[in-house]
Specification:
Distance between the termini: 14 Å
Strand content: under 5%
CATH architecture of the largest domain: Orthogonal Bundle
Shape: globular
CATH class of the largest domain: Mainly Alpha
Helix content: 55-70%
Number of helices: 12
Radius of gyration: 18 Å
Length: 231
DNA sequence: AACCAGGACGTGA
DNA sequence: TCACGTCATGGT
């Protein structure tokens, strides 16, 4: 068992299954979560259950770039309420109307453009699963967004690593501070068993732990991270 | 009432 | 490559 596997097991025990990626209109809740409690499905790994949910996850992945999830959830609800949460519906919106709908998630000018770019790409796939390289070619889709889409929207085995993960692992000295996100990502991929549910849960746990202990500025309780390793 | 969030892009060195 | 500025709303 690798150190990262042990870390994963301890975080899972501490926080419980996170139920990522959240989707609208799912009745389940996760009472252990601090922020929004809607749409999470702890312990279930059969999402997305249909094309509608798949596209919604993609849209959420773009809207959540450097943005707190409750803001994204508002934007998704506004899109849905306006009947614009499918690819063709979204492409049919006047640009100004799209910006108004997604305003709560911030950066609405760039994100509106990103959504349109991605949606065109999404339709061009005709249901096929995009490769990571293909996703990275889309304007507005960077490494974390591409990996999140692969892992959560398409259920592909893709490691997702974010700023929290890098801070956490470097604080534990599992990764050098100067390691790039890509290096950390490759390393994590080698340390965990190749399981889609495990990858999904791992990233969700890293975000939850990051929010609690590795928020920017002073790390609130970095010692807990070390404790999580040693048990 | 600052501070920051589940990043990515454009630019200049 | 890489560091830095920019994008913006809402929660704490």
């Amino acid at each position: 068992m690798t150190t990262l596997e042990r870390l994963y097991a301890n975080l899972l025990e501490a926080y419980g299954p996170q139920g990522w990626w959240p989707v609208l209109d799912f009745a389940g809740t996760n009472p252990t979560k601090t922020g929004s409690v809607h749409g999470y499905h702890p312990g279930r790994y059969d999402f997305p259950r249909n094309e509608r949910e798949r596209f919604e996850i993609c849209v959420g992945a773009i809207l959540t770039q450097n943005t707190a999830w409750p803001n994204v959830e508002q934007a998704l609800r506004r899109l849905k309420k306006a009947g614009r949460l499918t690819p063709n519906e979204l492409l049919a919106i006047p640009l100004s109307e799209l910006k108004v709908a997604i305003r709560p998630s911030g950066y609405y000018n760039v994100k509106a453009k990103k959504l349109l770019e991605f949606t065109r790409f999404y339709l061009s796939l005709h249901g096929r699963t995009p490769t990571r390289a293909e996703l990275l070619e889309v304007w507005g889709v960077g490494p974390e967004t591409a990996d999140s889409i692969r892992l959560y929207a398409y259920g592909e085995l893709e490691m997702v690593v974010d700023a929290y993960t890098r801070r956490f692992l470097s604080a534990l000295r599992l990764a050098p501070p100067e390691a790039s996100l890509e290096q950390v990502r490759a390393w994590c991929g080698r340390q965990l068993p190749p399981s889609v549910p495990a990858y999904q849960e791992f990233h969700a746990l890293m975000v939850e732990h990051g929010k609690r202990c590795y928020s920017r500025k002073p790390y609130r309780d970095a010692l807990f991270g070390a404790g999580a390793v040693n048990g």
